[in-house]
Write a structure and sequence with these properties.
Elements lengths: L4 E2 L20 H14 L4 E3 L9 E5 L13 H4 L3 E23 L2 E19 L5 E7 H14 L10 H16 L8 E2 L3
Parallel strand pairs: 1-7
Antiparallel strand pairs: 2-3, 3-4, 4-5, 5-6
Amino acid sequence: MILPIRAYGDTVLRKKAHDISPDYPELKELIDNMFETMNAAHGIGLAAPQIGLDIRLFIVDVTPLADDEDYEDIADELKDFKKVFINARILEESGNEWKFNEGCLSIPDVREDVSRKETILIEYFDENFVKHTETFSDIRARVIQHEYDHIEGVLFTDKLSPLKKKIIKGKLTKITSGDIHVGYKMRFPK
């Protein structure tokens, strides 16, 4: 089932999410719905707060990037990179910071350069509640960091300079008021 994505301004996007247990109600169905919702919106990541749930759950699927010539040197790593992250904790961020033009399904039509570290060490449970501690780099680390921020109540726009925030303020106001048209299901703040 395709769920509505919460738009910028919704208070759930600012909440620090809480852990869940393996007996979380209908978890498999929720994860399936999140993938269906993300795919319908042509995204590569989606966090539970974006569908109105303040739980530490997010998904990523960067397989569409495997065919992008910008990533041909890591295409093999990307083609099967579809993961579920439950109760994730980033343990370490390392390497150089690099800028990349990010967007967000909750903040449509806004894209800005954001600096992030190139490598992360993250601990998480997968959809079967098997614990993993893994290191990720490149675009995979960036997508994970972006989605991880969502479960911490942080948006990519928070990482922008005061000048950039001022420039996009009008766009954010339009999103909050629902004065925007997107090609996917959204729920705007009341």
